[in-house]
UniProtKB/TrEMBL annotation:
PANTHER family: INOSITOL 1,4,5-TRISPHOSPHATE RECEPTOR, MIR DOMAIN-CONTAINING PROTEIN. Residues 37-190 form the RIH domain. One of its GO terms (molecular function) is calcium channel activity. This is Inositol 1,4,5-trisphosphate receptor type 3-like. It comes from Notothenia coriiceps. GO terms for cellular component: membrane.
Length: 392
């Protein structure tokens, strides 16, 4: 019955009949309120503990068809009430297909409805493809180009990058086709889309952005976009993809990464993205990236790792915690250390012979040993640190 009401209200909104202005306004307000309340209830249905059953029920009722019709109603972009209805409609469709391949396929049949510059649309498309290997592997080049074009012409919005990130990996498998296509499109897009802070002037801008983000990086901050971009590039190289690895290293040289990460004003969120990039584009790679094994860059990073490990140890001694810093150490730093020392390319590395003497300092050993013996350090992480201590 409620879906029928939404359908009737939708048809009335699209009607060409023109009733008296006052009557039309009152009727419109009444319809808006009815539809909003129904959409709120439908959204709650998909948020309950039995949401899988609710998704199936709503599919059988044809709820998604009503919502797709609602998205096609023409309206004034300044109509705040209608904009709210559209927002609820997208939220419903996103919940409707979350973790449900059948429902994802149903919405995918109407994909063109969502291929416009809207950010809500980008988020809905992301949900349609999320963790669905078949849909991701069959995606057309034109869909990718649409989002790259949106980045270039409608602003550097993280939502566009989030979609691109989503289609790189699904059901635990890398989608090499998507990695290659995204990398090609990004490298062809130019500075409007691929924003780095390589030169002196822009590097100072990045330092200012990090200073503004000490308490957290805002969603609309240019720094949030940059972090998401670096994360996307690293994801394109995951799973040992030779083509994307080489492209990534040409876009973001190791020297530039080290300059950012080791700067005293570098915030942890940036370190997470940059060091993860180093791991997937320079260390855990299909082909040898000689620079990482023939220069001191990696040891400068290791020195910075030690400083951050010491911070974690000091905070724990004072019964203080920094979840972001600890997550960085556990998930990113330890993985990078393990990847470097377990890489077959590191065995004959000249940099192992010319590493800075600081790495053999007692303080260095003490810090790493404290982390090694920490409660939160386990398995693969301990293995990497054990080898690290041996080389130190």
């Amino acid at each position: 019955r409620e879906l029928h009401i939404v359908s009737v209200c939708t048809l009335q909104g699209a009607s060409e009949d023109t009733p008296p202005k006052k009557e039309k306004l009152e009727k419109g307000n009444e319809n808006y309120q009815k539809v909003k309340e129904i959409l709120e209830r439908l959204n709650k249905m998909c948020s309950t503990g039995v949401w899988k059953k609710q998704q199936r029920l709503l599919k059988n009722m044809g709820a998604h068809k009503v919502m797709l019709d609602l998205l096609q109603v023409s309206y004034d972009q300044s109509d705040l009430k209608m904009l709210e209805i559209i927002k609820y409609t997208h939220l419903f469709l996103q919940k409707f297909c979350t973790g449900n391949r059948e429902n994802q396929v149903l919405l995918h049949k109407n994909l063109n409805l969502f291929l416009n510059p809207g950010l809500l649309e980008a988020e809905t498309v992301q949900h349609i493809f999320s963790n669905n290997y078949q849909l991701c592997s069959e995606i057309s080049e034109s869909v990718l180009q649409h989002f790259i074009h949106c980045l270039a012409t409608h602003g550097r919005h993280v939502q566009y990058l989030n979609f691109l990130h989503t289609i790189i990996k699904a059901e635990g498998k890398y989608v090499k086709k998507c990695q290659d296509m995204i990398m090609t499109e990004l490298t062809n897009s130019g500075e409007d889309v691929v924003v780095f802070y390589n030169d002196k002037a822009s590097f100072n801008v990045m330092l200012d952005l990090m200073a503004e983000s000490r308490e957290g990086v805002g969603e609309s901050s240019p720094l949030r976009y940059h972090i998401s971009l670096v994360e996307l590039l690293a994801a394109c190289a995951e799973g040992k993809n030779v083509y994307t690895e080489i492209k990534c290293t040409s876009l973001l040289p190791l020297e530039d990464v080290v300059r950012v990460v080791t700067h005293e004003d570098c915030i942890t969120e940036v370190k997470v993205a940059y060091v993860n990039f180093v791991n997937h584009c320079y260390v855990d790679t299909e082909v040898e990236m000689k620079e990482i094994y023939t220069s001191n860059h990696i040891w400068k990073l290791f020195e910075d790792f030690t400083v951050d490990m010491a911070r974690v140890c000091n905070q724990r001694e004072k019964r203080l915690t920094d979840p972001i810093l600890e997550k960085y150490i556990i998930n990113v730093v330890f993985d990078t250390i393990h990847s470097f020392f377990s890489s077959p390319f590191s065995e004959n590395s000249t940099s192992l012979q010319v590493r800075p003497s600081m790495l053999s300092a007692a303080k260095h050993h003490s810090v790493v040993l404290n982390i090694y013996n920490a409660v939160f350090c386990k398995g693969r992480q301990k293995l990497g640190l054990k080898v690290y201590l041996r080389w130190g």
